[in-house]
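Retro notes, structure queue

What went well: the backlog is down to a handful. What didn't: a couple of records were mislabeled last round, so from now on we paste the full input next to the output in the thread. Example, using Type 1 glutamine amidotransferase domain-containing protein from Nonomuraea indica:
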Amino acid sequence: MSKILMVVSGADSLTLADGTTHPTGFWAEEVAASHEVLAASGAEVTIATPGAVRPTVDALSLDERGGVPPGEAQRFRAYLDGIADRLGHPLSLAEARADDYDAIYIPGGHAPMADLAQDADLGRLLNEADARGKVVAALCHGVAALLSATRDDGACTFAGRVLTSFTDEEERQGGLGDSTPFFVESRLRERGAVVRAGAAWSDTVVEDGNLITGQNPQSSTSTAEAVLKALAAR
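Corresponding output:
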């Protein structure tokens, strides 16, 4: 049985480019759909957050204002309710050890930009996991969390790696636009990653060795399935 550490942001607000505060959290589909696929395979999924705080779901991810139809919102809400105990008692990232897991999986929502992108404990975990060839997966804005991992010389651990993320185009079309504190795609490019983006809002997954990334919420199920396929091939 595979053991997967799902790292979820603990942030409930994001400081925008103009200094104002914007409510945020994890994106419901990215946690619910991913967790459902992984758990249904028989994998043991442990949820971890910075400081073991209970993560907050972004209200927009369960609302038509966020582009989520009522039926889908109801389904995601029901699934999250079903794992409420796990979400309510997460492992602290500081206590997590890469050797205890076969894969690390990071869903998004804007929240990872507020904490995971700079989290030293996550950076340590990602460095350990990547050095051991374990599967490292991230989805949408969760790919910003890869920025937390740096080498001894200060370079991003994932510089030179091929990946995808929530694109600048998608941020402008259906995200925070120019209010965003930074554009994830652009920041990853600046830090040396090779970003291969699909069409806006397409189900796009990119694999580069042990690194698996998904572009947006529409890629949630495919990203989780790619992780399971990679684990089964080991």
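Agreed that this is the format going forward. Reviewer comment attached to the example: The chain has one domain: 3-232.
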